[in-house]
Write a structure and sequence with these properties.
The protein is built from two helices and seven strands. By secondary structure, the chain is of the alpha+beta class. A hairpin with a 2-residue loop joins β5 (101-104) and β6 (107-111). The structure holds zinc ion (ZN).
Length: 127
Amino acid sequence: MSNHTPNEEGGICPECGKSFWGRKDKQFCSISCKNRYHNRVVQERRSYRLATLSALSRNYQILDALLKDKRTSADLAELEKAGFDPAFITGHRRGSLRHDDYACFDIRYFRSDTRIFNIRRLRLNGR
Ligand SMILES: [Zn+2]
């Protein structure tokens, strides 16, 4: 004989892996598992966001240094050795001509398979 009501059902806690009985919509064995699970999810999202911002910041510093050296193009392999990751951009526009336009904040560039070129700074407030 089961001592569970028809509204209850068994589940596996996604935090500790323990099986439990409870209301059909119950997802965790306890409030502390629920809190631990959600705190970890929030922490993982925050870490991912910070890692993304950090990669964008590194890309920006590299592009900014190129512009300060009066360089408007660079080999992608060389940039990647310096820590540039082309997967991190703040904008992308499909090019009307041959190349797509990429943005890292106010710095724009075109990209081929091996190079970035026409690196330029967006004009802000006419400067
Ligand atoms: Zn649990």
